Amino acid sequence: MSTAVDPVLVLVLMLNFLVLGTSRLRAAINASALQGAFLGTLVVLVHGGFAVRPIMVGAAAIAIKGIIIPGLLHRALRDVAIRREIEPYVSFVTSLLLCAVATGAAVLFAGHLPLAPEHDGSLLIPASLATVLTGFLILTTRRKAITQVVGYLVLENGIFIMGVSLQEAMPSLVEVGVLLDLVVAIFVIGIVLNHINQEFASQDVDQLDKLKE
Amino acid sequence: MVVALFVIPLLFAAVAFLSPSARLRPLLVPIAGGLHLALVVATLWRGGDISAFDGWIVIDKLGRIALPLISVLFFLCSLYLPTYLRLRAERPHRVFCSSLLAFLAMMSLSISSHQLGLMWVAIEATTLASVPLLFFNENSRSLEATWKYLLVGGVGIALALLGTFFLAYAGVQGGVKASLLLEDLLRDAPLLSRTWLHTAFIVLFVGYGTKMGLAPMHTWKPDAYGEAPGIVGALLAGGLTTCAFVAVLRCYQVCAAAGDGDFARELMVTMGLLSMTVAGVFMARQRDYKRMLAYSSVEHMGILVLGIGLGGLAAYGALLHLINNALTKGALFIAAANIHRAYRSKTTDMVSGALRRVPASGILLLAGFFAATGSPPFGPFLSEFTIARSAVADSHFVVAGMFLVLLFVVFVGMGSTVLAVVQGTPPEDLEDTGFRDGLGTVGPALALLLAVLVLGVWVPSGLDAALRDAAVFVETGR
Q1: pLDDT at B150
Q2: Chain A CB within 8 Å of residue B289 CB
Q3: Taking the CB of the first residue and of the last residue of chain A, which one, N or C, has fewer CB atoms within 10 A?
Q4: CB B217 within 8 Å of CB B285
Q5: Do residues B421 and B365 touch, judged by C-beta distance below 8 A?
Q6: A192 touches B at CB < 8 Å
Q7: Which of A89, A88, A68 is nearest to A25 (CA)?
Q8: Contact: A178, B121; criterion CB under 8 Å
Q9: Would you say B196 and B166 are in contact if contact means Cβ atoms under 8 Å apart?
Q10: Closest residue, chain A, to B129 (C-alpha)
Q11: Could you read off the pLDDT of B98-157 as tens digits, one per residue?
């Protein structure tokens, strides 16, 4: 495992705060894309040295998480007049504080888990848990459908870090399957987003409230 | 040969997508469903575990129950499809038909996967294939239901993936060769790291439990089942939930093999009773009869995990209940769809007197209600009675008492809505919607309900033996 792994994970964690703290939807999408690209490099760094398989998986992750999915989201955004997340359910300052608490809790919790020798003292597991929690935070506190999709992506990024910590032990077939699945999922979400645009001329999930008891 | 179970429906999905004829396309679905059923029967006829792709695909003792179940359900529902699509001639159905077939392929794959990563991919694929099914009506209500289904289901499925990784990590930390093959996990289970195994099971149970629709992760279910066409409701409530339950059972098997079954069982009993309670509360005074069916599904998912949680004879009861639930839900959703078509409304404000307006569908809804609430002589009575008897025999008196009280609460809640639908006189200002009871609309539901009736009075000895084997397999891995 390369010594550059932890610095990259610190960058990933900082991007969590950026996604949560910005009100501009474009910035949120770009931050999640950058995070995805870092995860691609992480695949290679965790392996250390050059090998074909990690480089291919890493390249696929960068292409999918860093380019294709953000592209789809930017396209979905182009057709609507909204540019900002206004009035989230929880204010930006509060959600940043919650994210800090979640990150701290993830580090503490991971400290109590028994870790494999090669991960002792590494940031891999805490960063994974913190990013998953951030994804949850975005999903539950934001009003725009597209920001919720970004939250889902951040959640997936956290799970991907967990997958990276396993890559020496697992065949890459499943990783590739997971990445492909993600593309299809976002593609389907993109189509539904498009329909939300046409139906309501905005992306406020507040308008999705006809179905209740 | 096993591969044909996934390849044939997928081929038909492609043909249905490319087929230019809107008249012939709906017929492809029952043809593919019939072929699938024939293949399943032929496969099971050979007996024993059938394995392919280095053990990634195995039709095991659990698969021998679940696979024919979804195949029969799909085939009977597909017989309903041509008539239904003729009633909805205004809606395009190219994507709908091919998604249905892809859905069948992915359900079969998820049940037969013995590699937990592959199983996850298959369950995720069933979710994606069902999105166009939910969005059939393309209005703002179905859009809302689809969005919630995608997000809540997406988060659930993401958690299941995280749990799968945790499970692999339990192996890495325990010093064994990390593998997600069920055989390897069952063999090495005692060596897995306990902390990681526990965390993994909780996360997996919440994740796949979301797909099952266990409370409190059930919030997508009333919206999705309420807005989807009846045939989709039948396939989700009977088929997809079966696949998610099988996924939960795979995770439980690993826990049990590690000697940690008690931990998992306690969690399942708690969640089972909670789901039944939530269903009982929300079913009371429910005016929308399709949403009512969704809460009934939440209740039955609770019964399934409760039975597994109690273990022993109750586990046998839960597997029998898996069959009864899927068949009953199929009949109920088709009957509800017919009444929806006849009235163009799905609330009791507008719907009454179904027994007069559409007598056959009305009777089926009423009989289906008795079946779903565990009244004799229908199958669910037998399976629920088995679970209650096992709970009492093992001195779980509190659980048994709560189980019986909750069954009664659900009976009363569901009964008031169903009776409001079928009794009384139809509203006088009701226009003629052109819907009539006929062989195409009533036949499939009748067949499903007759099967439930037969299972209530007679469990064939072959099925009984298969259920016993499967229950032992779930609890011991052998």
Answers
A1: 87
A2: no
A3: C
A4: no
A5: yes
A6: yes
A7: A88
A8: yes
A9: yes
A10: A188
A11: 999 999 999 999 999 999 989 999 999 999 899 999 999 888 888 889 988 988 998 999
Burial of B431 (0-12, 13-18, 19+ CB in 10 A): exposed
Read off the pLDDT of residues A118-165 as tens digits, 9 standing for 90 and up: 888 889 999 999 999 999 999 888 878 888 888 988 998 999 898 888
B216: cis peptide before it, omega within 30°? Answer: yes
Domain encompassing residue B398: 4-476
- How far, in Å, CA of A70 to CA of A25, rounded? 11
Residue B347 phi, psi (nearest 5): -120, 155
Distance of residue B440 Cα from the nearest chain A Cα, in angstroms: 31
Q: Which amino acid is at A110?
A: A
What is the Cα gyration radius of chain B?
21
Provide the percentage of residues in chain B whose pLDDT is more than 90. 79
Number of structural domains found in chain B: 1
Let me know: does A131 contact B162? Beta carbons within 8 Å.
Answer: no
Q: Is B171 on the interface with A (CB under 8 A)?
A: yes
> Which carries the bigger pLDDT value, residue B111 or residue A191?
B111
How does pLDDT run across B237-290, given as a tens digit for each residue? 999 999 999 999 999 999 999 998 999 999 999 999 999 999 999 998 899 999
Return the residue matching tokens 């000895």: B461
